[in-house]
Every structure is written in C-alpha cells, then in structure tokens.
C-alpha cells in the first residue's frame, strides 16, 4: 500500500457536498453509495433539459450524449467506448450476459461461495432453465493470501467448465480477489469469465482492455458516487454478437450507420430516465478535483482509512483481521461474536446489533450473516466524507453493546 499522509485520514473532505443526515455516522457507502450535491444538480439539469423538449432530447440529442458518457467512462476504465454498454446496475449486467448465451446439457457454470446472492440466483435460474450445473468453489475465509483463492477456484475447474463468475471485490466479505490472475488462467483454458466488479470502479484502478475478460461489469453509483442506477457492461469485441439486452427494442433493426449492433441495441431499450448515465463525464471530472491527485489519490486515501479503521475496531474487540492488507480496497470486514439464538432467521433479517448501533449511537453500518447464521461480520466503508474518529466511535459503541 502506498503511504498516505496521516492528515488525510483525520478529516472528511468536501463538507456540505453530501446530503447525509446531520449527526448520522455513515460507514456504509458500500451498499448503495452516496451522491454529492453537485452531481445531483447535474442530473437535475439533464432531467429539466429533457422535459423542456422531450422529443428533441430523446430522439435528437440522446445518442450523442450517451456517446460522450461512454467515451469518458472508457478512458477511465481502460477500454474502447464501443465495448461498453451503459446499465442501471451490475446485477442487470450479469443477467444480461447469462440470459443471452445459449447453454448445453453438461455445461458447468463456476461461482464461489462468496458470490453475491443476487448473481448466484441468476446462475441458479440459468441452471434450472437450461439443465446445466452450477459448481461452487469454497474459498477459505479468513484467507491468508491471494494464492489460496486461486487454488480453491481452480480446484473445481473441469473440462465441462464453460463459464465463471468471479468477483473483483466480494460483498459480504469485502475481499479483493485475484481476479486478474483468475481471468488470465481461466480464459487461457477456454472458460468465458465474467468479472462482477460491482465495487471496482473508484475503488481499484481498472484496465479492461489488458484484463481481457470476456465480460466485466461495474457500478458507478458506489465508489464513483454517481446517482443511483449508473453502471456498465464491458463485453470483449469477439463476444458481442451473442449479447443482447434484456429488453429487445427498436435497436434490433435500427440502421447501424457505422455503429455496432451491440451499441445500437443497448443505447435504447425504451423510455427511461437517462439523466444519471449522462452525468458520467461530470462525475469523473468531479473526482479529479475532489482531492489533490484525483481518483488515484481518493482510492489510496480510502484504502488507508479503512485499514486504520479496521485496526481500531479489531484491537477494541480483541480479534484478528480476516484478510491481509493487500486484499483490502475501501471496505473491510471484522468478525463479531455469534449472533444470539433466534428462530426462523433469514439472511435478510435485520441483526439486532445493527439496529442497536443505529438506535443508540446513530451509526449506519451493515452486519452480514456469513456463511450463514449465527456467524456474522461487520463491514465498514471509507469514503471522502469519513474520518478516523468515526471508527473510534464505532469501536466504543460495539464494546458497550457486545460487553455491557
């Protein structure tokens, strides 16, 4: 990890630019992000511009504006604009790829036991619909090194493995997986890899052309702080012919006029609010000005802050961090004592400890049952509006609630 000056961890940045409630200690940027006021204002400008002359905007201006958004995003993630399709979220992108491809009996789809629940559901849907098999690699957690992840995934690859869904950063366990190594190895064995990079843009530097995965998706409304519903799908050029939108619309027979069918179809799937997607150039420019050094500096600062926050909380609870620092981005998990006995517990039920942190201390932070109840993990986030004292307050609150 690159050294970050301690002063950058002691204070929040761009005070007043977020709409977060006064007095709320918000350590859960990882779930849905949080959008700064200037970007919301830019979104509102596009909405008003559309409503002044909807036909002119949606028919005449929109294609060029979408092109500008894809060009700005492509430069940021190291890709070609025509290989990007703008989406509302990463789950939509995963479903788009899985439901576009044709499967044969005997095909195996590979995932890990850290795969995001919504995406695992999409894999299971395909398995039931097509009669194929989902194979789940058990990745150790806590994990000592990236190589343990590589070994666990490759151990379940067979001659029937056709497709692999690999997280860039896991959700419940907040771990940066060695996805570059896995992409190179699996694609080299003829396995199509889709990287679920829901958390990746704005947390990790991306170079999608050199990564060379068949498919990659990322959310922009998380760590890039875009308005909600801004994401993308990157499809390698040799795979684009097979990939169609979930909604087939006018683009299926629209004249191409020098464009690819992939671009034309994904540009229009019916009337929707495109305003968030059109903010991408402004979003990326905002980050370059938010902190000296731009997005690379933001990523380094957030990583350093979350690692310091993790240490504070682990020391207070007397527990060990579950993963090495090299496998941490802007989110981190901390083990908690097992949850108290309860009947008929669902993974979607609110943990009583999470509720108590909000009710007694106004702290918003997620607690995940993983791999299943009663095991549970606290996940902290670090964004520009956070600072070191907030993790100290969380540690104090946890100690009071866990050891009253």
Can you walk through the features of this model?
This protein has about 400 residues and is α/β, with parallel strands linked by helices. It has two domains: about 5-25 and about 295-400, Alpha-Beta Complex (Aspartate Aminotransferase, domain 1); about 40-285, Type I PLP-dependent aspartate aminotransferase-like (Major domain) (Aspartate Aminotransferase, domain 2, 3-Layer(aba) Sandwich). The protein is built from 15 helices and twelve strands. The chain has helices at about 5-10, 30, 35-50, 55-75, 90-100, 115-130, 145-155, 180-190, 210, 260-265, 275-280, 280-290, 295-315, 350-360, 390-400, and strands at about 25, 85, 110, 135, 160-165, 190-195, 215-220, 230-235, 330-335, 365, 365-370, 375-380. The chain has a seven-stranded mixed β-sheet, with helices on both faces. Strands 9-12-11 form a three-stranded antiparallel β-sheet, covered by helices on one side. Helix 9 (about 210) links the parallel strand 6 and strand 7 (about 215-220). The longest helix has 24 residues, at about 55-75. About 45% of the residues are buried. The mean pLDDT is about 95.
> Looking at CATH, which topology of the largest domain would you report?
Aspartate Aminotransferase, domain 2
Give the class-level CATH name of the largest domain. Alpha Beta
Overall number of structural domains: 2
Arrangement of strands in the largest sheet = 2-8-7-6-5-3-4
Helix/strand structural class:
alpha/beta
Strand content: 5-15%
């Amino acid at each position: 990890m690159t050294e970050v000056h301690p002063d950058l961890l002691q204070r929040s940045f761009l005070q007043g630019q977020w709409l977060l409630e006064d007095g709320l200690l918000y350590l859960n940027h990882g779930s849905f992000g949080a959008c700064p006021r200037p970007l919301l204002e830019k979104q509102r400008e596009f909405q008003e511009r559309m409503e002044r002359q909807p036909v002119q905007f949606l028919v005449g201006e929109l294609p060029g504006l979408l092109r500008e958004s894809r060009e700005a995003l492509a430069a940021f993630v190291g890709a070609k604009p025509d290989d990007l399709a703008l989406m509302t979220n990463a789950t939509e992108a995963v479903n788009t790829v899985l439901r576009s491809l044709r499967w044969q009996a005997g095909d195996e789809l590979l995932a890990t036991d850290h795969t995001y629940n919504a995406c695992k559901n999409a894999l299971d849907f395909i398995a039931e619909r097509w009669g194929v098999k989902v194979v789940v690699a058990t990745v150790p957690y806590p994990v000592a090194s990236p190589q343990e992840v590589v070994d666990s995934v490759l151990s379940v690859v067979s001659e029937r493995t056709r497709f692999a869904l690999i997280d860039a950063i896991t959700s419940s366990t907040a771990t940066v997986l060695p996805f570059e190594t896995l992409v190179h190895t699996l694609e080299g064995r003829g396995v199509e890899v889709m990287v679920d990079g829901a958390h990746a843009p704005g947390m990790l530097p991306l170079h999608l052309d050199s990564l060379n995965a068949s498919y990659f998706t990322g959310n922009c409304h998380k760590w890039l702080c875009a308005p909600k519903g801004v994401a993308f799908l990157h499809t390698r050029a040799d795979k684009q012919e097979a990939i169609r939108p979930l909604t087939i619309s006018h683009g299926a027979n629209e004249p191409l006029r020098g464009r690819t069918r992939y671009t034309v179809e994904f540009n229009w799937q019916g009337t929707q609010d495109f305003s968030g997607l059109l903010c991408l150039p402004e979003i990326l420019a905002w980050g370059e000005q938010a902190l000296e050094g731009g997005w690379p500096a933001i990523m380094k600062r957030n990583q350093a802050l979350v690692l310091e926050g993790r240490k504070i909380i682990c020391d207070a609870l007397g527990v060990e961090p579950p993963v090495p620092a090299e496998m941490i981005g802007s989110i981190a998990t901390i083990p908690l004592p097992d949850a108290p006995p309860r009947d008929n517990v669902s993974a979607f039920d609110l943990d009583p400890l999470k509720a108590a942190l909000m009710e007694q201390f106004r702290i918003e932070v997620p607690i995940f049952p993983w791999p299943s109840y009663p095991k549970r993990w606290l996940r902290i986030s670090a964004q520009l509006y956070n600072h070191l004292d907030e993790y100290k307050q969380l540690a104090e609150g946890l100690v009071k609630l866990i050891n009253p």
